[in-house]
Structures are given as structure tokens and as C-alpha cells.
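Colleagues,

For the teaching module next term, I've prepared a clean inverse folding example: a structure given as C-alpha cells, and then the sequence designed for it. I'd like students to try predicting residues themselves before seeing the answer, so please don't circulate the second half yet.
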């Protein structure tokens, strides 16, 4: 039998809980929209509570309700109070509280036999870019994603939406100190690679060589780049060859290109 939503009034504590969860993050992460909720369910995450608007229940109830377990608490609120509890400007009519435990750093290096490929974000403050990077890491086979301590939370609602559910597919590690990441890479003989806006040397293609090796690619914020501490610790810098004299690429775009190139080199290595 599908879970039956219970109607709740305008000032119900559940609405307050959702408002707080959108700002706080784990262990309960608030997600909004049928796509993210569906990805969380398919990935085996426990949905603690689900909240529909009246309109959302009409549009999504028949499809979503049968997917929830008997342990999920379901409720429905009028459209106005529901929208006031959401983070998105235009809510999609359904939200959920998901129990989410961030992965330990060791998991981001992959399982036994995998060639580590980590993407790390340093001092990045745009949650949309961060979510795009998580999605790219998932798409191109990264073993894990690391948000360093000075980076916006990967559980920020905008980052979650931009990840399009990829945050449920691979190890995502949050609030990692730069020193911890450096030490973990060195202990595992994983090359720490810092991104740069421009390739140096006579052969810019060489700037992207060696991505088939165990590697952790560090991307900084667009304005300041990779922090000095990580630059000093990096084995080398890498850069995307560009034909025109533009200042830099969007961080999300740059990360996707670098991960694609790493995946391409790794495919060639296995042939």
C-alpha cells in the first residue's frame, strides 16, 4: 500500500523543520523536486519525511508515493505554506528529508583495484558551479569528490539541484582541510594536480599529460584560482589549451573538460 499523506496546518512544525534543513545539511538533507527525490530512492538512501503541496500531490503523488517505504512519514500542506518552507524560487510541489552521511575521505580514492581520480574544490563559493562539478565527476567516472573546508557546502540546495542527483551516486566528502587532503594523497601516491588558467611551456598539450595516473585534480574559485598552500603541495599544474585569449573558463566547464580528458586517457590506457 502506498504511503498516505497526512494534511498539516499552516504552522505545523514539519514546515519549520524543512526550512531549517535547507540551511543546515546532514544528517538530514532537504531535497526538492521529483527528480532529486527519485534519484535518492534509486540510490538506496532513506527518505525520512516527504512533504507535498496540494498541487504537487496531484501532479506527483501517484508516481512517487508507491516508491516510499512504510518508514517514511508523508504530509501535504497548502501551496502557500509549502512554498514558504522551500528554498527554490519556484518549488516543484514535493520535498523530502533524506538521511545522508557524508563519505570519509578514504572512500573518495575508490575501491580496491580502482585508479583514483578525485576532483577537489578549493575556496569555491558558487553552489551552482559546485553542483555542476559533482555531476561531471559522476559522469566521467571520478572515484570521489572533495569539498575543502573553505568551500560552499555540497549540501547547499542550489548545489544539490545542480548536481541533478549525482551527489547520491559517488562518495562526496565535505569540510576537508587542505592539509588532510595533501597528506592523504601523499600516503597513497596520488598526484595532486592544481589547475591553472593558462598552460605554460612550448607544448600546451603536455599540460594535460598523465591524467591516466592516480590523480586528485584541484579546482579553485574563478577569481583567485587554487590557494597557495595547495599550489605549493601540488606535483604540477595543469591547464586546458585554449585558442583564444580569454581570461578563464567557468569552473564547472573547466572541471568537466579535465575529467573528460582523464577518462579519455584512461580508456586508451586499457586498450
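(Answer key — instructors only)
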Amino acid at each position: 500500500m502506498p504511503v498516505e499523506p497526512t494534511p498539516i496546518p499552516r504552522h505545523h512544525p514539519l514546515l519549520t523543520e524543512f526550512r531549517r534543513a535547507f540551511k543546515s545539511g546532514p544528517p538530514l538533507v532537504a531535497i526538492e523536486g521529483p527528480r532529486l527525490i527519485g534519484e535518492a530512492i534509486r540510490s538506496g538512501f532513506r527518505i525520512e519525511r516527504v512533504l507535498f503541496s496540494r498541487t504537487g500531490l496531484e501532479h506527483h503523488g501517484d508516481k512517487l508515493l508507491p516508491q516510499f517505504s512504510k518508514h517514511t512519514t508523508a504530509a501535504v500542506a497548502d501551496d502557500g505554506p509549502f512554498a514558504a518552507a522551500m528554498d527554490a524560487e519556484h518549488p516543484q510541489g514535493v520535498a523530502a528529508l533524506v538521511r545522508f552521511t557524508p563519505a570519509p575521505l578514504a572512500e573518495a580514492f575508490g575501491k580496491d583495484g580502482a585508479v583514483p581520480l578525485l576532483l577537489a574544490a578549493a575556496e569555491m563559493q558558487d553552489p551552482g558551479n559546485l553542483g555542476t562539478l559533482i555531476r561531471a565527476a559522476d559522469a566521467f567516472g571520478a572515484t570521489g569528490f572533495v569539498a575543502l573546508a573553505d568551500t560552499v557546502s555540497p549540501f547547499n540546495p542550489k548545489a544539490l539541484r545542480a548536481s541533478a542527483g549525482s551527489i547520491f551516486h559517488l562518495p562526496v566528502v565535505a569540510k576537508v582541510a587542505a592539509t588532510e587532503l595533501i597528506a592523504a594523497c601523499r600516503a597513497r601516491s596520488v598526484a595532486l594536480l592544481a589547475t591553472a588558467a593558462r598552460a605554460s611551456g612550448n607544448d600546451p598539450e603536455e599540460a594535460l599529460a598523465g591524467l591516466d595516473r592516480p590523480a586528485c585534480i584541484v579546482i579553485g574559485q574563478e577569481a583567485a584560482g587554487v590557494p597557495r598552500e595547495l599550489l605549493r603541495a601540488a606535483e604540477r599544474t595543469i591547464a586546458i589549451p585554449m585558442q583564444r585569449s580569454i581570461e578563464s573558463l567557468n569552473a564547472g566547464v573547466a572541471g568537466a573538460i579535465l575529467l573528460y580528458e582523464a577518462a579519455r586517457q584512461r580508456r586508451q590506457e586499457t586498450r
